[in-house]
Design brief:
The protein is mainly alpha-helical and 487 residues long. The protein is built from 18 helices and six strands. The protein has helices at residues 10-16, 20-26, 30-42, 51-69, 78-85, 110-121, 131-147, 152-174, 183-223, 229-236, 247-259, 262-276, 287-290, 292-345, 394-397, 404-417, 423-429, 436-448; strands at residues 49-50, 93-97, 104-108, 420-422, 452-467, 473-486. Helix 3 (30-42) packs across helix 6 (110-121), helix 6 runs antiparallel to helix 9 (183-223) and helix 9 (183-223) packs parallel to helix 14. It is extended, with a radius of gyration of 33 Å.
Length: 487
């Protein structure tokens, strides 16, 4: 008898037939949904799109299909289909509104992207490599085994073994024996690289979906909380940030820190450019792979901004909850005051109200801080003297004005050449002329006029020269957190 895992149980699979991915594959409009959403979202790596733009694109798609297959093929309007796909019964699209706008936005759900990826995997592959997958599994096991080894002697022995292997390989290369991968091995590894790279983009939407689930769970706990305010704060905010400190948040943070390293980005770009020039992989590469690391940055930045927005909304929701709690307390106090005023005119014969527990707050005298004496400043009575009339007043009129438009043009020109550029690179290409005022203008532009990312864990040194009154140049410097302008 063949055994199946708990995830492939019959009853579990029956319940899963109501999941969005399963419903999509069973739908009669599956070819339209998969082809259209793949072309709009997956291929160009679009994370969200305006409702008007998506409706216009679907109208063009439906018009072309009706011309070929008849008007009865898709009789409804594009807006009807989009709202149907985003309905809770289907769940193939996520319809939402961004902060500060009343126009609807659409994005794929993780279930839809899984269904599209599965349909894409049905196509026949002319070459299926297995060597690179086995090596990847071996390396993963090796990393887990070495990373969990607490015995220093074993760790040192493994490092010595690795060093000996490197020295042996160096000696072989020096002697002229340079081992190279053959075309089959190159194609095998490149095919696996493309698959994992695209799967990583697919995982971002599921990461965002998990973050939103964590946010809803935290809101539910706040809404149903019946304890004290202090216990609620310890429960929700005590871990610094519920969303960011989850397993999903820590994993994403580690990925983002690794990807945001400029050294890693340069190394990745150089290796990718070298691999794409190899003749063995010429027929396997596509335009998407050439900029896959930039797609990672865009998707990661979108996820990071979404997490920050969820954290702000969670804090605002908690503040609203506390405001309602304070208002309820004030209503109770006001009702007590009203009842007391009514009893003052007609005092009762017995007790008017009772308190369940009456306790007094005991504060010992020695627990109070000692009174610190205030030091009075001694002001000397000195007569003001008349200043000199021949003071050079030109310094008061030598003020400068930083041209924001010129700095913005400088940023745009840099982003035309690269998809992202750091503030330090901008200043190296064009040194600061007006010192700190110009630096502050760059920082203001990063918040107001350009899409930017702040790497809080990395600091960069900004230097500039300032001319003093006597004509000498003074070199100044300032440490700032890395600011990255993104196209």
């Amino acid at each position: 008898m063949t055994t199946v895992g708990p995830e492939m149980n019959y009853d579990i699979l029956v319940r899963r037939t109501q999941q969005p991915a399963w419903l999509l594959l069973r739908s009669g409009h599956a070819p339209l949904v998969v082809s259209f959403l793949c072309r709009i979202f997956i291929e160009p790596n679009v994370r969200s799109i305006d409702a008007a733009e998506l409706t216009a694109a679907l109208e063009d798609e439906l018009f072309e299909l009706r011309e070929r297959h008849g008007e009865e093929t898709f009789p409804k309007t594009a807006q009807y289909y989009l709202n149907d796909w985003a309905s809770p019964e289907k769940g193939w699209l996520r319809k939402f509104y961004r902060k500060g706008t009343d126009e609807a936005q659409f994005d794929l759900t993780p279930s839809t992207e899984k269904a599209i990826a599965w349909v894409s995997s049905l196509s026949e592959r002319g070459f299926v490599g297995t060597e690179s997958r086995l090596l990847t599994l071996f390396q993963l096991l090796k990393q887990m085994s070495e990373g969990s080894e607490a015995d220093p002697a074993k760790r040192i022995a493994e490092l010595h073994k690795r060093r000996d292997e490197i020295n042996t390989e160096i000696d072989r290369v020096v002697s002229g024996d340079i081992p190279l991968l053959d075309d089959v091995s190159l194609r095998d590894r490149f095919q696996q690289f493309m698959q994992v790279a695209k799967d990583l983009l697919t995982d971002f939407r599921e990461v965002e979906h998990n973050f939103r689930i964590l946010d809803r769970q935290a809101r539910k706990r706040i809404a149903l909380w019946d304890g004290t305010k202090g216990d609620l704060l310890d429960e929700i905010i005590g871990d610094r940030d519920t969303i960011a400190n989850s397993e999903q948040g820590r994993s994403f943070r580690a990925f983002w820190d690794f990807l945001m390293s400029s050294r890693r980005q340069e190394e990745l770009s150089e290796m990718l450019a070298h691999v794409l020039t190899l003749p063995a992989v010429a027929d396997l590469k596509d335009a998407r792979v050439q900029q896959i690391h930039y797609d990672w940055l865009d998707a990661g930045d979108h996820t990071q901004r979404m997490v920050a927005q969820l954290s702000q909304q969670l804090r605002r929701f908690l503040d609203d909850k506390m405001w309602l709690e304070n208002r309820r307390i004030m209503d109770i106090l006001r009702s007590i005051e009203t009842k007391a005023l009514s009893l003052r005119e007609n005092p009762p014969s017995g007790a008017a109200m009772s308190i369940e527990v009456a306790t007094a707050t005991i504060e010992l005298p020695m627990e109070r801080p000692l009174y610190p004496t205030t030091l009075k400043p001694i002001i000397a009575h000195v007569e003001a003297e008349t200043g000199d009339d021949d003071i050079d007043m030109s310094a008061l009129y030598s003020q400068v004005v930083v041209d924001r438009v010129q700095l913005a043009n400088h940023i745009r020109q840099a982003l035309q050449e690269k998809t992202q550029v750091t503030l330090c690179e901008l200043i190296e290409a064009r040194p600061l002329q007006y010192g700190l005022a110009e630096l502050l203008t760059y920082l203001q532009l990063s918040c107001e006029s350009f899409k930017s990312t702040l790497d809080e864990d990395t600091k960069e040194l900004i230097t500039w020269e300032t001319v003093v009154v006597d004509g000498a140049a003074v070199k100044k410097q300032c440490w700032v957190q890395r600011v990255i302008f993104v196209r």
